[in-house]
Sequence to fold (248 residues):
Amino acid sequence: MDLSNRTILITGATDGIGKVLAIKFSKLGSNIILLGRDSLKLDKVYDQLEQSFPSQKHLILEADLSQLNNESAHEIFNAIAGEFTSLDGIIHNAAILGTMTTLEDYELSRWDEVLNVNLRAPFLLTKTLKTMLESSMLPRIIFTSSRVANVGRAFWGAYSVSKFGLKGLAEIFANELETTSPIKVFNFDPGATQTKMRASARPAENPNSLKTPSDLVDCYLWFFSEESSDSKQNYYEYADLSQKVKAR
Fold:
């Protein structure tokens, strides 16, 4: 698949799924905008991309999404616009787990932090960067969902609530943009994957029983393909989409 000169913003790009996608998409010709809050990790991934794929242009955006507001979102817009003429995709990958506890015992400050990172920031970034996406030939927005976005589960607290909200946000954006914009919006549940967050949520689980972030790459590539342009479906789960991709 040729992704030459496509410019893609990946949030949470320093670890796990985000890092793997940054490397793979860059290998296929994309310019990658790395957004994260850890400057050392950002530099490390950036250096890896620059050394391995020197023909592409990459950009670091250091940002704490828990503190994102209108002003800082527009600073991100200006930083991207200063380097690229258009934006071809946003992969909303960044998320934090929060506290695994009852709602009664949930600390408000932690609740606000999780909702800000997992829900408020994707809303602000999408809203702010929408005009840059509309100048692309195949613009895409990918929101990352979860099984706990479908059924409320005890002790998942703010994380579950944020994913319920994100699923609704993606559906509303998809519905509003369907007839007014070339942007395609997808909501993707990657399922159980070997990530630090998964290990924190389920410390007794054997990570070797789970798929790796690399196993997800073909699904994300499909979202950026011509084929996905004809999709009438907004929400996909890994189990279903992976079979669809394999059947191509």
Notes: The mean pLDDT is 95. The longest strand covers residues 31-36. Residues 108-133 form the longest helix (26 residues). The beta strands are 7-11, 31-36, 59-62, 89-92, 140-144, 184-189, 235-237.
